[in-house]
Amino acid sequence: MIREDFREILRLVRPGARVLDVGCGEGALLELLTQEKQVDGRGLEISAHGVAACMARGLSVVQGDADQDLDHFPDKTFDYAVLSQTLQATRNPRHVLDELLRIADRAIVSFPNFGHWSVRWSLVSRGRMPTTKALPTPWWATPNIHLCTLADFMALADDLGVRVDSSAAFAGKGPARAIDPTRALENWRSETCLFLLSRGAPAERVEPSAVSGDLLIP
To answer: InterPro entries annotated for this entry (predicted)?
Structure first.
């Protein structure tokens, strides 16, 4: 069964595009994009286990850290850079988001919204860090180090001069719902948020195999 956020990403990516999936895990999304949209896909994954699982699927994925290794890619190497449910686990989200839109014409970014009503209610009623469907891991075991709200993300995008081309929200297992992220109500309603982002006119792309070093597999 395809995850609903994957369905939305699949809808946003045009066929045959060059795609970098950052924090690609075991490669489920990258494999889906390759099969359904025939993308020229690459992956960057921090865990050795994830890289091995991706390679077993026949995907071009290498081990690397988004906080450091995105810096090595030339400008506009890709049509899309995807960061699915990973931004909040990076050490420097501002830098990572900036780099995504340097190396790709567009970025697709999703994250759990810490402003969702269930999170607020858990804090008010229990006085403890919440665990929800979007944030299921207890505070002492979670990889998330920079949780943010929808409003926080919009403020960061504005500060970076990033344009929001499309935005959607998810709650539970329901399908994507188009949202106006500037509406205060959406910061309460949206359990998980997904954005298609860009910055200015697309620049000339560089072939992925032109990247120096071992970050990409031609």
So the answer is: Methionine_synth_MetW, SAM-dependent_MTases_sf
Pairing of strands 61-63, 40-45: parallel
Q: Which residue has the tokens 């309460």?
A: 188
DSSP 35: H
**What pLDDT shows up at residue 168?**
96
CATH code 3.40.50.150 for 4-199: yes
- pTM equals 0.87
What would the two tokens of residue 35 be? Answer: 């099969």
Question: What single-letter amino acid sits at 68?
Answer: Q
| Strand order through the sheet with 61-63 | 61-63, 40-45, 18-22, 78-84, 104-112, 192-198, 163-170, 177-178
